Amino acid sequence: MLYDVTIDGKRFRLDLNRANGRWSCLIDGREIEVDAVLARPDVLSLRIGNLAYEVKSERVANEFHVWVGSARFAAEVRDPRSLRGRARSGDDRAPRKIVAPMPGKVVRLLVREGDQVEAGAGVAVVEAMKMQNEIKSPKRGTVQRILVGESAAVNAGDVLAIVE
Amino acid sequence: MFKKILIANRGEIAVRVLRACHEMGIAAAVVYSDVDRASLHVRKADEAYPLGAAAASESYLNIPKILDVARRSGAEAIHPGYGFLSENATFAQACADAGVKFIGPTAAAMQAMGSKTRARQTMEKAGIPFVPGTSRGVDSLDEAEQVAARIGYPVMLKAAAGGGGKGMRLVHASGELKSSLEAARSEAERSFGDSEVYIEKAIVNPRHIEVQVLADEHGNTVYLGERECSLQRRHQKVLEEAPSPIVDDDMRRRMGEVAVRVAKAAAYTNAGTVEFLVDRNKSFYFLEMNTRLQVEHPVTELITGLDLVHLQIRIAAGEKLPFTQDGVRLRGHAIECRIYAEDPDNNYFPSPGKITLLLGPSGPGVRIDSGMYEGWTVPIDYDPLLAKLIGYGADREQAIAHLTRALNEYFVGGIKTNIPLFRRILRDPDFRAARLDTGFLDRLLKRNEANPADSRSAEVAAIAAAMFAALGSATAGSSAADESRAASNSDSNWKSASRREAQR
Predict the structure, then answer these.
(1) Is this structure's pTM higher than 0.90?
(2) Got the DSSP string for B147-198?
(3) Do A10 and B356 touch (CB under 8 A)?
(4) CA separation for the pair A150, B352 (Å, rounded)
């Protein structure tokens, strides 16, 4: 199986195959001796050569992180055969969804549909645990849609607005 | 002894008190708000009573509802935990009137400590050391200049009616006094409708050290050593340790005796904490008394071998303290980390949500007081404290070693926590050398410590990420499905949006 993996922005191409209970692994064409046991969901005991690692996976909303020990890496895994079409989503001209990073209440909307926003500009204020958190636009563009109203309750991952 | 106790709190402290009840063979009844039905304290309780809506005023702060539960459950005593109603004199009095024992001080003792001016008068009579300054407002610039010259710069101007930093000015030299006094006065007038301003010596970057006291209802009061609580962020404690690295036996005895005098002056009973500011010369000044069990009580328990909640319950039941001051022995060192649901990469904003994975540390020198579990959704409505991780050992170095190792084992997935902050604190050279003051954490956080992961770990992460995909880990599979569902939902939003646009 081929996987395109991005770790903190750096790309790797992996070829992982299992035969007779043994893994074979090519990383960017280099062969590596790997052995893995899924100790429980989201926890992998990994051996690379004789070095042992406990790796955790964490998915929140549309983010995927892999923890090696206590170091956290943002990860993206693509199967190049089935997901070719999704490559466009990395295109900066494509519309981007702005999601609530945590559950809370929308206390204020800082933009209106049609507004121009800069990257990093505040779009909405979400309150949780008595603290207010400004949700920012990931890119420069036009606010195409606002999907929540003020005082709406939102969950982590809910789309607040779309910037094109 | 009581047969049943009602715990009027939630989170880790409700679980902590519940455990003490069970250890003593006492049934534990708890209360919960609508969003806390699935909370750990409800799972572990013998009886659980709903209070209603999430808002604290409708639930954990609602005195009539809680007293009604006490009556219906037949509980003979109420433990208030910390926060919520724990320092509410009206509640303590209402319990007494309803014939339910409040596990804490009397309403009168709380009131004596609750009002700033009354506390100061009581303490002045008892000869307690305060931060030098005036105990009344200053009338003129002349008077202010005389006082400031007498106590020495820098000085702090404070609104008599003040709080929350309003009407407060730090003055470094006499040239700034006039304008600062005018500014403090007008701000005090605007904020509190009272322009009275008094002067105190400013203690720059003090240490915050507090003394645990315990008093029974038969006139016996003891101190149980001190806790160093200088590591704070926005006046919120983050890490506490006992004993304080700068307090020696003599200073401990002097602080302890003052703390006992404070408690006795207020006719205090049960567990309480006397807070002091300590300057560079190790002079200490009374700050205030906390009339409750503190969040950080476990560090005192670990170095004294005492169980403070057991003792609180025994005292409330009318028992005498089972030891005298001479029987209190300190041994070893303990450090507590307050694990908050907050995001270190996003200015420590709260991070409620579902805990998808929880791996707790274990092994030597580790204690965890926790209110969370895997699969639980941290509600958005309350304080973000999830758990307390305490490391202890024969000395400070060993406690740090246990704690550092335990922090590396601790994993909370699905939400963000401040666990990475503690790793930074524990390896900081100033922390290791115990050079601590209340400005420590702000200075540490200002240094933007980039922690570039090595390329080797990135490669391990890449292999693991692909492996998770290959093994189709159950959660990975389901969240992939969630994701595609979410994607198709928003796709259809987009489609309908573009359809609407096409129709325009």
Answers:
(1) no
(2) HHHHH-SSEEEEETT--TTTT-EEE-SGGGHHHHHHHHHHHHHHHHS---EE
(3) no
(4) 20
Contacts of A59 in chain B (CB under 8 A): 356, 475-476, 479, 483
Q: Per-10-residue mean pLDDT for chain B, 504 residues long? A: 98 98 98 98 98 96 98 98 95 98 97 73 83 81 92 88 72 93 88 84 91 98 98 91 98 97 95 95 91 97 98 98 98 98 87 94 98 96 95 98 97 96 96 95 85 79 94 48 40 41 43
Top-tier CATH class for A2-86: alpha beta
**In CATH, A92-163 is 2.40.50.100:** yes
Q: Contact at 8 Å (CB) between B380 and A104?
A: yes
Contacts of B411 in chain A (CB under 8 A): 56, 67
Strands B77-79 and B4-7: parallel
In angstroms, the separation between the Cα of residue A32 and the nearest Cα of chain B is: 10
Q: Which long-range contacts (CB under 8 A, 24 or more apart) does B346-349 make?
A: B346/A101, B346/A133, B346/B416, B348/B233, B348/B418, B349/A102, B349/A128, B349/A131, B349/A133
How far apart are alpha carbons B317 and B306 in whole angstroms? 18
